[in-house]
Design a protein that fits this description.
This protein is an alpha+beta fold. Helix content is 41%, strand content 16%. The chain contains nine helices and six strands.
């Protein structure tokens, strides 16, 4: 949906601020995107966000909300970031959620401007951010982005954009296909049928063989 490709010399926030998200969106990002002014801008544009609270963040608790400990929620609070940096940028009141993952035992502190969703939903939204990491892993493993063919800026960006386009097409093919298809399996299927004139639908959703024809084939094998 949104992609920015730049050199590695600037902070990710430089590109992050340029995105124009639709009103009502929920943006999920890690602690590398901490920017109090951006928090205020997103809130003013009716764009929600879920991120991690920095351990050294300075704030005061305005209100405490009931929690469901059985769902791993330890605290649900309304806070005000009150460091000089946050006050200068007029950061709005935010929501701090402390959560413990029962499986791993890890403790997390989430920060959000969404006060409508339940605390467990906010935690689940941040957990979905892991799909971004899986996406990068998939394109590195399956679309040959571990090494670059050329070293110029144009060559590197061209190779990255081609990989992203290929991933988008394969994702669409997976949407058309049956359950159980993976990106790797789809790519193998494309490689095998590279010189066949078939539509994606025909390739990933082949016509089922009639029962009588199957029986005939089995008889022939016998």
């Amino acid at each position: 949906e949104f992609v920015a490709v730049e050199n590695g010399k600037e902070n990710d926030m430089v590109q992050g601020r340029k995105f124009q998200f639709p009103s009502g969106s929920i943006v999920v990002f890690d602690k590398g995107y901490v920017d109090y002014q951006w928090y205020a801008n997103l809130t003013a544009q009716n764009i929600g966000f879920v991120t991690r609270l920095r351990p050294k963040a300075v704030y005061r608790v305005i209100q405490q909300h009931p929690v469901i400990v059985a769902k791993g929620i330890l605290k649900d609070e309304t806070i005000q970031l009150n460091s000089a940096h946050a006050v200068k940028r007029q950061t709005p009141p935010l929501r701090k959620i402390e959560y413990i993952d029962r499986q791993s035992g890890k403790h997390f502190m989430f920060l959000s401007n969404n006060f409508r969703l339940s605390a467990s939903t906010i935690a689940a939204i941040y957990k979905d951010r892991w799909k971004v990491e899986l996406f990068f892993k998939a394109i590195k493993q399956n679309l040959k982005l571990k090494a670059f063919i050329g070293r110029s800026r144009n060559a590197i960006q061209t190779q990255i954009w081609i990989a992203l386009i290929a991933y988008l097409l394969v994702s669409f093919a997976r949407h058309l296909g049956q359950e159980g298809w993976t990106v790797q399996r789809l790519l193998r299927m494309i490689q095998v049928n590279l010189f066949e004139r078939k539509t994606l639908k025909a390739l990933f959703m082949p016509d089922k063989i009639p029962i009588k024809q199957k029986e005939a084939q089995l008889s022939l094998l016998l």
